[in-house]
Design brief:
single chain; about 180 residues; alpha+beta; Aminopeptidase; 8-stranded mixed sheet; 5 helices; 8 strands; about 25% helix
């Protein structure tokens, strides 16, 4: 049995190890999406952990505040990761649905991401809404996707996607 709950500070070490295994320790920090997350905290109330019956973290998802060009505020999804021993059990989908439902309930209008279209299409993500948006670095355009949580939230969106939201004071204080 898997439980999805808000991420807590005690999850962070296990989350970091999971992400390193899933994406590669150095590789994940080189991604364009990481530039949008640097020095920031996830959007308020939109970081979740999947915990197994023994209390182990087996999945994680976070959404981040961004400015989607002329469309204004949106969310950036990522990373979404599930422990390799737990993949294929629907944990990733459950985390994603939970995060999207929560974002919608909080009044957010749209979610963008860079990811596998074949996976995310079943949740309603598509390339069309971000056709005229650009990320601050290289990205495979076929993997740049969006989902409107509110109809029309990305209508006419064009320009650069930029990070915004709550600064991570712990990271800034350490610099």
């Amino acid at each position: 049995m898997i439980a999805i709950r808000p991420e807590i500070a005690a999850d962070i070490p296990a989350r970091e190890r999971l992400l390193d295994r899933a994406f590669g320790r150095q590789q994940r920090r080189r991604k364009t999406s990481e530039r949008l997350r640097e020095g920031r905290l996830p959007s308020e109330g939109l970081a979740f952990s999947a915990i197994d019956a023994k209390g182990r973290l087996v999945g994680t998802i976070r959404l981040w505040d961004v400015l989607a060009g002329s469309a204004g505020e949106a969310l950036l999804l990522g990373p979404l990761a599930v422990d390799c021993r737990q993949q294929g059990k629907g944990i990733g989908g459950a985390l994603l649905r939970h995060a999207l439902d929560t974002a919608r309930a909080l009044g957010h209008g749209a979610v963008i991401l860079v990811g596998d279209e074949a996976y995310y299409r079943r949740f309603g993500f598509a390339r069309g809404p971000v056709a005229d948006l650009h990320l601050p670095g290289p990205v495979d355009r076929n993997r740049f996707l969006a989902l409107e949580l509110r109809n029309g939230a990305l209508d006419g969106a064009e320009g650069l996607v930029a990070g915004c939201g709550r600064p991570d004071h712990l990271l800034q204080d350490a610099a």
